[in-house]
Amino acid sequence: MDKVIEAFKALSIAAVSDAMDRLGIHGACVGIAPVQYGYQMVGRAYTVQYLPVSLEKGTVGDYIDEVKAGEVVVLDNAGRLDCTVWGDILTSVSHINGIAGTVIHGVCRDVKCSLELKYPIFSRGKFMRTGKDRVDAVAFQVPVSLGDVQVRPGDIVYGSDDGVLVIPQEKEAEILAVAQMIEEKEEGIRAEVLKGTPLKEAREKYGYHQLQTKTV
After folding, report:
1. What's the confidence (pLDDT) of residue 208?
2. C-beta of residue 42 within 8 angstroms of C-beta of residue 157
3. Which residues share a beta bridge with 126?
4. Residue 100 — φ and ψ, nearest 5°?
5. Helical H runs in 73-198?
6. Is the pLDDT of residue 209 over 70?
7. Which helix (H) or strand (E) element contains residue 134?
8. How far apart are the C-alpha atoms of 152 and 145, rounded to whole Å?
9. Bridge partners of 8?
10. Which of 6, 144, 168, 175 yields a CA-CA distance of 20 to 30 A from 200?
């Protein structure tokens, strides 16, 4: 068991995002949303880079057997909306193998399968047209991008109803500690309010307005 992953699962994505703001670390993936609400996805990235198809047509999905249980598949298709790089077969294999979820800088299809299996997918949208003979998977376990966020193999990817965050591996312990502090203080504010303390007073007590203040 990855204790760091389990610790992040216990935190809200909002607290982690606030911690990254405080530390001056950009990791919020704009424009990538859950296909279905109600699921949390936290795991280390397995990355795949796609390019437009060359004269020698390649493959779009045979890599899936190399992805370990608990990892998150991160697919960089340059944000393309005209062809997919993920469908029902990949969803089925991933579900069987215990993969944590999939994030796509691009689109997916066969959404019905992912909904039935309750498999978390985060993407820029949905579209029915195949990527076969349109794009090739050209590199694996290399740095890729989710918009303006870089993702490297082993970085932590956190997805929820609020979107997707990428947590750099070398900063994960620092981010975790700050996020735990922020969530503890916000829980304190909620407890004070439930006791009848005015919100302004509870926020001042726990330093709410300084929680996201940059430390760098």
Report:
1. 64
2. yes
3. 108
4. -70, -30
5. 88-97, 111-117, 172-194
6. no
7. none
8. 9
9. none
10. 175
98, with CB counted inside 10 A (0-12, 13-18, 19+), is exposed
130 token code pair: 């195949």
Count of residues making up the chain: 216
Q: State how far the Cα of 216 lies from the Cα of 135, in Å rounded to an integer.
A: 41
Ramachandran sector of residue 156 (left: φ over 0; alpha: ψ -120 to 50; beta: rest):
beta
Reply yes or no on whether the pLDDT at 214 is more than 60. Answer: yes
3-state secondary structure 52-79: ECCCCCCCCCHHHHHCCCCCEEEEECCC
What pLDDT, in 10s, does the model give residues 157-204?
A: 999 999 999 999 999 999 999 999 998 888 877 787 888 877 777 677
Say if strands 72-76 and 101-105 run parallel, antiparallel, or are unpaired.
parallel
Q: Which of these, 35, 72, 55, lies nearest to 165 by C-alpha position?
A: 72
142 to 17, 61, 166: CA distances (angstroms): 24, 16, 15
Buried b (16+ CB within 10 A) or exposed e, 47-75: bbbbeebeeeeeebbebbeebeeebbbbb
What are the structure tokens assigned to 70, written together? 């608990």
- From the CA atom positions of the chain, what is the Rg in Å? 19
Give the amino acid at 150. Answer: Q
Report how far residue 114's alpha carbon sits from residue 131's, in angstroms, rounded to the nearest whole number. 18
Give 139-168 pLDDT, tens digit per residue.
999 999 999 999 999 999 999 999 999 999
